[in-house]
Each structure stands twice: as C-alpha cells, then as structure tokens.
Amino acid sequence: ELLTGRYHQIRCHLNHAGWPIANDATYGGVAEPTKEIYTGPLAQEMLEHHRREHCRSCEFYRRMLAGAEPPPRLDPTIWLHSWRYEFPSLDLCFE
After folding, report:
1. Contact between residue 21 and residue 27 where contact means Cβ atoms under 8 Å apart
2. Confidence (pLDDT) at 68
3. pLDDT tens-digit profile, the chain (95 residues)
4. Are strands 85-87 and 92-94 parallel, antiparallel or unpaired?
5. Are 37 and 29 within 8 A, CB to CB?
6. Are the C-beta atoms of residues 84 and 42 closer than 8 Å to each other?
7. In angstroms, rounded to a whole number, what is the distance separating the alpha carbons of residues 59 and 47?
8. What is the Cα–Cα distance from 90 to 13, expressed in whole angstroms?
9. How crowded is residue 86: how many other Cβ atoms within 10 Å of its Cβ?
10. Cα–Cα distances in Å, from 52 out to 31, 37, 39, 91?
C-alpha cells in the first residue's frame, strides 16, 4: 500500500479537489465499490430509465439487482478514470 510519493500525492490532491478515486477508501472513495456500483441506488435508477428490450446486459443487471446473480468481482487495485463518460447512442452521460 502506497503511503508516500507521487501516487500518494495524486490521491491526496484529487480528494482535496473533491474528486476522490472511486475505490480509494483512504482518500474519500468507497470501501466496497462493487456494492455501490453494481447494487447501489444509481444502478437501479439507470436500469429503470435506460433498460432496453432483448438486451442481455440489461437482463443480467435486472437479475443481479434482484439478488439472483452475484455482482462481478472487481480487481482490488486503485482505479483512475475520466471524470465524465458519454454514450450518445444510449443517451447516457455520467459525471
């Protein structure tokens, strides 16, 4: 676990700026991102508003949110992603 050096500095600065790394619980992220990402209220809301008929992924998420499928296991390393994602073909945008 990194506690010093430039990676620590990046983590600290991002948190201070209000943009903590999603799964970096040491600096403001979520300790269990799998629960938050795959079974949290945002996942349910996204499925309700953007579900497509005959979409295998949508059906998988519906079963997962109902507890019939386990959520995917995520790599425990720290993620660093874009602050905004856009999917025009699906009319989705995330910040």
Report:
1. yes
2. 92
3. 555 566 678 888 888 888 788 778 888 877 776 676 777 787 888 888 888 888 888 898 889 888 898 887 766 666 666 667 778 888 888 77
4. antiparallel
5. no
6. no
7. 9
8. 33
9. 12
10. 31, 19, 19, 12
Residue carrying the six token digits 């943009």: 19
CA–CA dist 33, 74 (Å, integer): 8
CA-based R_g, the chain, Å: 16
Burial code (b: 16+ CB inside 10 Å, e: under 16) for 39-73 equals: beeebeeeeeeeeeeeeeeeeebbebbeeeeeeee
